[in-house]
Amino acid sequence: MDQIATPQEAIQNKQYKMALIELLYQLADDDFILAFRGSEWLGLAPHIEEDIAYASINQATMGHAVMYYELLESLGEGSADELAHERKASERKNAILLELMNGTGSYLENPSYDWAFTVVRHYFYDIYKKLKLESLKQSSYLPLAQAATKIKMEQYYHVMHWKVWFNQLVLSGGEAKTRMQAAIQKVWDEFADVLSYGTYAADFSKYQLIEEENLFKQKWEVEMQQVFQKAGIDYPGPPSARKGNGRTGMHTEDLNQALSILSEVYSLDPQATW
Amino acid sequence: MVGKVRENVESMEFLQSKVLQILENVKDPEIPSVSVVDLGMVEDIQIDQYGRVKLKVLPTFVGCPALEIIKKNIIEAIQMVDGVNGVEVEFVHDPPWTSDRISEKGKVNLKQFGIAPPPVFIKEKELWDVECPYCGSHYTTMENLFGPTACRSILYCKSCKNPFEAMKPISTLM
């Protein structure tokens, strides 16, 4: 099919637009909620250098979410701010894994956050995101292909960062290794949901918005098998989605908790200009 | 008639050069020694016959919080130019901004502010080479890839023992 260069063109084909919007919500909501969970670590990261690095990564990831929300805005979905702050949990399309709390407590009270879980969740997600961006660079929707090209340049450093943490912790002994293995299990239990294209999967590939779902999954698995091999861990086989499928709007209580905190200031006065 | 057209073309070129000149004064709010032109952010300037200016500007990093301030500063600066009748600034992502868009003058001015220009990758040695902006030594180490802003890393000079920052290299090959 021909490349679609503008939102005006995309809007003309109803089915194309529906598929495109669905994909953009998944991309936007994934980056948005993970950047929020990441920002909860601010001031709590293992050391000062990590605090700076992680804050920078979260800012960049939030910037990627904004870019996707702006693409939705140009397709008539409402303003980027509204899309980020005002949508209910059931309207969100992010994968469940990305909304899960960092640990127990809150960033104000007794934060007992799990760094192993954070490292594994980010590293596996960022490898997935890198592959997804590679595919999106060929998307039939030109503004999305251009956004992917831009985001991928920044993503390079994110993957590099989490790779260092992952390898150092997983290749060490003692508590680090045990906790990393538990974290890998926890992430693996939900990762099938991250990989899912949701209900419009067929249309995504029909309109060449992104490569076919199963092909993409295979590509991700090949890359992950190498990650496990280098870390000296047995590959656990295909991942599961125990808590459900976030792409269909199914979510945990953790998402409600996140939304009530992140929209607290916004909701005080939605008309305020920033 | 021909004379009139020529006059118009000349005045347009004059206006274009005036706009470019004024943009040299619009600095990155987080790096006050370098203009948006020298950072390679200004992709295109269009001026129509009514003096309406349209700019295409490339964001360095997507999540850069300085973007809206830069936009405002560009508009305010250009509005001051005689003959300008309205300014529009649009952020575009094609072509994507890469760190090799920084001009030679920009690199000099970055150093003045204590920031090394984007490191150069030396293929033979498979090493990034970063020159200390203070003493010029190449005996430097990367302390943190991520710095105080999205576009900068934190380094340390083992010669003059100063910490410093460097622009993060960004390329479409990544």
Topology:
The complex is a heterodimer of chains A (274) and B (174).
Chain A: H1 7-12, H2 14-39, H3 48-74, H4 80-85, H5 96-99, E1 103-104, E2 112-113, H6 115-136, H7 142-170, H8 174-188, H9 191-195, H10 201-206, H11 213-231, H12 253-262, H13 264-268
Antiparallel strand pairs in A: 1-2
Helix pairs in contact in A: 2-3, 3-7, 6-7, 6-8, 6-11
Chain B: H1 2-23, E1 27-28, E2 31-35, E3 42-47, E4 53-57, H2 67-79, E5 87-91, H3 104-112, E6 115-116, E7 120-122, E8 127-129, E9 140-144, E10 152-157, E11 163-167
| Number of self-contained structural domains of chain A | 1
In CATH, the topology of chain A is named Ferritin
Kindly state the percentage of residues in helix of chain B.
Answer: 25-40%
Q: Which percent band covers the strand fraction of chain B?
A: 25-35%
Globally, the shape of chain A reads globular
Q: Main sheet of chain A: which strands, in order across? A: 1-2
**3D shape of chain B:** elongated
Mean pLDDT of chain B: 89
Arithmetic mean of pLDDT of chain A: 95
Instruction: Calculate Rg of chain A over CA atoms.
Output: 18 Å
Low-confidence segments of chain B: none
The CATH superfamily of chain A turns out to be: Ferritin, core subunit, four-helix bundle
Q: For the terminal residues of chain A, how far apart are their CA atoms?
A: 41 Å
The CATH class designation of chain A is: Mainly Alpha
Q: How do the helices and strands follow one another from N- to C-terminus of chain B? A: HEEEEHEHEEEEEE
DSSP, total strands of chain A: 2
**Can you list the strand order of the major beta sheet of chain B?**
6-11-10-9
Query: How many H/I helical runs of chain A?
Result: 13
List the helices and strands of chain A in order. HHHHHEEHHHHHHHH
